[in-house]
Amino acid sequence: MLIIYFVLLGFPLLFTRTDSGAAIQLTPEVLARFLIITVPVAAVAVGAGLWGWLALRFTIDGDDLVVETGLLRKRKRRIPLSRIQAIDLVRPLVTRVFALAEVRVELAGGDKSEIVLRYLGKNAAQQLRAELLARAAGLPGHTPEAPERPLWRVPFGSLFGSLIFRLPVVGTGLLFLGSLVFMIVYAELGMLVVASAALLGLIRAVVAPLVMYANFTVALSPDGVRLRYGLLETRMQTVPPGRVQAISLVEPMIWRGNGWARLEVTVAGYAGERQALSSILLPVAPRAVALHLISQVFPGTNVDAVPLVPASSKGVSFDKADGAGTDDAVFVSRHGWGCRRTDVIAHARAQSVRLTSSPIQRMLGLATVHVDAPPGPVQVAAGDRDLGEARAIVESTARRAQAARRAGGDPGRWATR
């Protein structure tokens, strides 16, 4: 990438204008200047890339992934494959030109737990990914890649429409048009600042997600949920069974007229920026498709069949659809009026259950129940419950979570259970 950048930076130096300013000519002096600037920078970039490639070595030793880094100062890491949370096959734009790929292995353990295996051939990267998934599931490394069943492909029109028809985007678009009209009619150049800020907001809210999630497909296989997406940088993400901690069914107000929904997830192993980039399980789809995918991630779950008990009348709620409920498999909480969210967490994935009460809630005899998952975009809570009801929910949910963990066992080596 550095090579391309500096070549483009030095390319204008090849040309110089004559005295008349009408012609452009190439001179030996300018060519020498271009080579002096570009060649050393290109050599440094190539050397840095070659150094990084030589400094990384990895092998699979039984049930461990052994990664060695460094040339002058070597460092060896031995990672149990049971710690693998997700495996992504990523192909940035530049590496796609040379038929290369990266395998990114997400481990349990925080923000610095990602292992990136770069400069692999496309076929070699796919084979490595399949072997790691098989061994993490407890199968022999030579096990063929599991077949997949396509579930949904997001049409480009639906993706573009879902990004456009959101209240913040609509408001920003109106602000952009209004500022342009005001600037033209009243010749007020100061409105150019407002128009520029609104345009940047539209690019970030529409263009960036459109490029990231273009060609989005979801498929199901025995080794987990497979996601493929990306226009410039393509990504194939595989989330093994049991790694999705919580799911949120998001239905903005404008979308509900079309029956659209989005699925956001908290996946164990992702942290920081990687968590934000990998938080979308389905950018937009019919609500029935989203519910079906939830039932595949949390087997035997029917979110709409879980009875939801409304919050206490002493609390503040703008939507009668708000409520919380549970069954033997999941805990469900629904809230929001402008943008309705239905948060779902499997009892086996709950890390803790706690009760909180603000000063105002204590005055009204209310409390909020939190069913905690690992840090991520989905946080499940049932707000404004009567204090006695909240305590009963905490005790019941804790018992269900303990029983579910005993029945489910360790999510690692799932294929041998």
TrEMBL record:
InterPro entries: UCP026631 (IPR014529), YdbS-like_PH (IPR005182). Residues 53-131, 213-291, 328-394 form the YdbS-like PH domain. Keywords: Membrane, Transmembrane, Transmembrane helix. Residues 399-417 have a biased composition (Low complexity). Pfam families: bPH_2. Residues 398-417 are annotated as: Disordered. It comes from the Bacteria. The chain crosses the membrane at residues 30-54, 163-186, 192-216. This is PH domain-containing protein.
